[in-house]
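Here is a typical protein record:
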Amino acid sequence: MAKAAFITGGASGIGLAVAKSLAADGWLVGLADVNAAGLEAAKAEVDGAETYLMDVRDRDAWKAALADFAGKSGGRLDFLFNNAGIAVGGQLETMSDSDIDRGLSININGVVHGARAAHDLLKATPGSAMIITSSAAGISGSAGMSVYAAGKFAMRGFAEALNAEWGHEGIYVGSLMPSFIDTPLLNHVTQDSNRNVRESVTAAGLEITPVSEVVKTVRHMLDIRRDVHTRVGKTAHRLWFMQRWLPGTLRKLQGRAFK
């Protein structure tokens, strides 16, 4: 039986790129997303993909999608890419309650619901793995990104805890910590700004990493099954280093970020 992967946020960006890579190697891939049109387009790009229109905040939708996918995979779930997330930005005092609630519920609760729903399938599949998409924003929070950083720091801790909890069951859990990746998320216009994220990143002199680097990293994580946190992109590596060795300098830089 072919290996099976279920990928949230699978209609675009990192999720779609990883799906293409796995499908090319013969994996059965389940793509989940809230974007119906995007899912339809993605299905045409990923050989043999099963698609699931779902909101990761909906526990019942998770259960139904995974039950259906398990029926098609022969009960296997080799890899859950718990990847769905949204970009939320702006000064905290100017953000709307709805934007704050949506950001936290998708970027935190949606991932937690997925882990709970998938656990039994992962446990029943030898050598299985779950990778959570955190972010360089989970290494150090900068001005204008408080709600986003809160979610990504939470996922960093969530991955650490489940790596410890599920390790004895043979399930590898890791967090992916990319910096600025060339995906549609960079086109999001943050609150309190007339520039999108891509323009702000460029203006700050930071690099944008090709999505192919993320795919390569995810495949490496699945192969070595060792580190809990894996960084992608020069900015992520630089933040990790500065957070450890130059925290005072980093705080000053983050306070001026994107102004």
The chain has a mean pLDDT of 89. Residues 97-123 form the longest helix (27 residues).
